[in-house]
Specification:
Length: about 300
Amino acid sequence: MIQEILRLKKEKNALILAHYYAPLAIWQVADRVGDSLELSRAAAAAEEELIVFCGVRFMAESAKILNPKKKVILPVADAGCPMADMIEEKELARLKAEHPEAAVICYVNSSAAVKALSDICCTSAGALKVAASRPEKEIIFVPDRNLGAFVASHFPEKTFHLIDGHCPIHNACSAADIRRAKELHPAALVAAHPECGEGVSELSDFVGSTSGILDYCKKSKAKEFIIGTEEEIVWALTKACPDKIFHPAKDGFLCADMKKNTPEALYRALETEENEILLDEDTVTAAARALEAMIRL
Ligand code: 13P
Ligand code: SF4
């Protein structure tokens, strides 16, 4: 299957992008494995005519928005992100009407239509930088309340308006899980994603994106870490740092939607070129403003 994927990839001159939460087998055939910011950048710079995005829908949509002339395919049509569905255009329009002076920062885990109504996007890797770049005293931050609260804690001079969006997988990692993991592994440092549940960032030695966690563990002199994000990343950590030990912060830290990107699904996608991302032009133009503002920064 892997050989067939590589053959088709070459034949079709396709670029395969894979998020760190996609299954390990997919990493073997991907041109680039990364966090959502790195993959957005790679999609924007892609010269290949076909981009196959082994991630979830909002990631493939961002690739299309940033490089609209390319054909972008999501191997499995229903690989979505539940958090992205927790804010709709209507609700954001209502928030904007309620707080007309506020800048709208929208986490990339959102629909193209929501991005189109936003001033700037952010990923977890650059959220603090994005917030620092806005002169407004008020910020509407959607949809992730945990990332929003983490960002807000760095800007006490600004007022943040948050909603109740969250990642069901990361939000289920609680402060109690981290305390328990620390009791079991007292020498370990904690590196966690800002999407984790309330109180986790305060208990962490490092809070950042998936690639940020990887970099932190690589550079740290410590030998043992508790990892507060999707557990596929533990493979990358173990490969990058064979002399270090990594403990997932809790059992079952798995994104089922990311795991839909099986080798079989990728093979089918390359063969049939089905599940193309199609967006209307006005949405692409408006959403591109917010995404490109993030990429420029
Ligand atoms: P990253 O920006 O760290 O890749 O996170 C994306 C995501 O969906 C985390 O759940
Ligand atoms: Fe969405 Fe959570 Fe999966 Fe990330 S881990 S893609 S936020 S459901």
